[in-house]
Amino acid sequence: MIFDKNTAKKTAELLLQINAIKLQPQEPFTWASGWKSPIYCDNRITLSYPPIRNFLREHIAKFIEQEYGKPDVIAGVATGAIGIGILVAEYLNLPFIYVRPEAKKHGRQNQIEGIIPKGKKVVVIEDLISTGKSSLNAVKALIAAEAQVKGMVAIFNYGFEIATQNFKEANLSLHTLSNYEALLEQAKDTNYITSQELETLQSWREHPAEWNQ
């Protein structure tokens, strides 16, 4: 679920502006999963643009307070959401931790870096939601540490059905600043893409694993 349509379109505008999101229907990218995709999203780029990272920080922080009240801790999912997570925690004057995909094989063998006392309320920050698998893996680690995970807030969501199902099964609320629908609407309104490219981008989202150029 997005915060609101205006915020979603503005976020999409900013991400397109700095090429944090690239749309290339004619020259698809190859994701690590092997999927061919007409879109690539790297929200870490936003950290290099102070006005944009401040926009993201403030909107996420204010939404967290509105939706969940003030949690005890902000958690970022490594590595993409560490930067924005720290910014949100700083804005709210809250402790910050981050969660690795798996425990380290050396040293203290931590999966969670930072201090998270048992029973504390945590809101998880993500930069991007695709299938939701890695995001929910972080949530499982926090629950195993006996934290109270109140929900997750992310910058962008592709809106895949599998992600919706995964979050539903995990019984976890997910809210994002922007999503795929808002992105395509913004891109079309500003002539960033043509009507034909819009059709291609829409068809990809329906069956991303089987999609061909």
What would you say about this model in short?
The protein is α/β, with parallel strands linked by helices and 213 residues long. 40% of the residues lie in helices and 22% in strands.
Set down the secondary structure blueprint:
Layout: H1 5-17, E1 21-23, E2 29-30, E3 36-37, E4 39-41, H2 50-68, E5 73-77, H3 82-92, E6 96-99, E7 112-113, E8 121-129, H4 133-144, E9 148-157, H5 161-169, E10 174-179, H6 180-189, H7 195-206
Parallel strand pairs: 5-6, 5-8, 8-9, 9-10
Antiparallel strand pairs: 1-4, 2-3, 6-7
Helix pairs in contact: 1-6, 2-3
Write up this protein.
- The chain has 213 residues and is of the alpha/beta class.
- It has one domain: 3-Layer(aba) Sandwich (Rossmann fold).
- 40% of the residues lie in helices and 22% in strands.
- The protein contains seven helices and ten strands.
- It has helices at residues 5-17, 50-68, 82-92, 133-144, 161-169, 180-189, 195-206; strands at 21-23, 29-30, 36-37, 39-41, 73-77, 96-99, 112-113, 121-129, 148-157, 174-179.
- The chain has a six-stranded mixed beta sheet with strand order 7-6-5-8-9-10, with helices on both faces.
- Strand 2 and strand 3 (36-37) form a beta hairpin.
- Helix 1 (5-17) packs across helix 6 (180-189).
- The two termini are 29 Å apart.
- The model has no long low-confidence stretch (mean pLDDT 94).
